[in-house]
Design goal:
The protein has 3 domains: 60 residues, Archaeosine Trna-guanine Transglycosylase, Chain: A, domain 4, CATH 2.30.130; 91 residues, 2-Layer Sandwich (Transcription Regulator spoIIAA), CATH 3.30.750; 81 residues, Vaccinia Virus protein VP39 (Rossmann fold). The chain contains 8 helices and 14 strands. It is elongated and about 70 Å long.
Length: 286
């Protein structure tokens, strides 16, 4: 296997090694190639993706010299990530939408995987992970039978990492559930992978403060907090404000899915707040 040498002694356990810490290889190594990493003192330091075009020249995937970066490696990492979500956090008891794999946190530097019901979305942050896209899709298909797949990378990431993701047609929107609330989501539209899954528990917690109260959701996007406040929190009144007309259209659909009445307003929140303040209009939960 190709070796890449460091200018430093490897003491950090962080999986990123920056370009300035790496000796330039004598021959060109294609971006995303799996290499062995040797530090300044000649000590084997790990194995991972190399990309001479990126400021993050090396992404360490393993520090076990006996562990190959192959199909079995990716299967193990995905299974470990899924065991945390399914067996420990027991997410599937409350939702069919969650982050399946979160890059370095799950030992898969440069990859984010989100599940939205029957849609699996992969976001790539590294050329090495993008090179593994077909393998990753096959492994995920075996763990989520019948799923549709969509993958992408932000344009600035593609430039920094020197890889090209051909634009796919986004999948048709789907409906997800969490804590008994339903949301229509559209992966591939605007906001990252499709929905702010990391706010699931915050949405439920906020709803607990809303019973019988007026609630204002600023920058409401597709209405996550607003819908929870009305559907779960039994707020007396909910108003959602956002500048994005497409997001508000989705928010109105989400209110309809849950059979709740919410007033959504298309406006710049700063101008809107300046206009209502003189009237004495106040909200209990914002």
């Amino acid at each position: 296997m190709t070796e890449v040498r460091l200018k430093i002694a490897r003491r950090s356990s962080h999986p990123w090694i920056f370009q300035k810490m790496v000796e330039k290889p004598s021959t060109r190594i294609p971006p995303g190639t799996v290499v062995d990493i040797v530090d300044r003192d000649g000590q084997w330091a790990g194995r991972g993706f190399y990309n001479g075009h990126s400021r993050i020249a090396l992404r360490v995937l393993t520090t076990n010299r006996d562990e190959a970066i192959d199909e079995a490696f990716f299967a193990r990492r995905l299974d470990h990530a899924l065991a945390l979500r399914r067996d420990w956090l027991r997410l599937e008891e409350v939702t069919d939408a969650y982050r399946v794999a979160h890059s370095e946190a799950d030992g898969l530097s440069g990859l984010v995987v989100d599940r939205f019901g029957d849609i699996i979305v992969l976001e790539f942050f590294a050329a090495g992970m993008f090179r593994q896209r077909d393998l990753l899709r096959d492994l995920l298909a075996a763990r989520f039978p019948g799923s549709r797949f969509y993958w992408f990378a932000e344009e600035h990431v593609q430039k920094q990492e020197s890889f090209d993701v051909r634009r796919q047609e986004p999948p048709a929107p789907t409906v997800i559930r969490e804590h008994g609330v339903r949301f229509r989501v559209a992966p591939g539209s605007k906001h990252k992978t499709g929905f702010f899954l990391d706010q699931r528990d915050n949405r439920r917690t906020l709803a607990e403060f809303c019973r019988g109260r007026r609630m204002l959701d600023l920058c409401c996007n597709s209405g996550g907090f607003a819908v929870y406040a009305k559907a779960c929190g039994e707020a007396s009144e909910v108003i959602g404000i956002d500048l994005d007309e497409e997001a508000l259209a989705m928010a109105k659909q989400n209110a309809g899915l849950n059979q709740v009445q919410i007033r959504f307003v298309q406006a710049d929140i700063f101008a809107w707040l300046r206009d209502i303040l003189p009237s004495g209009n106040r909200f209990d939960v914002v």
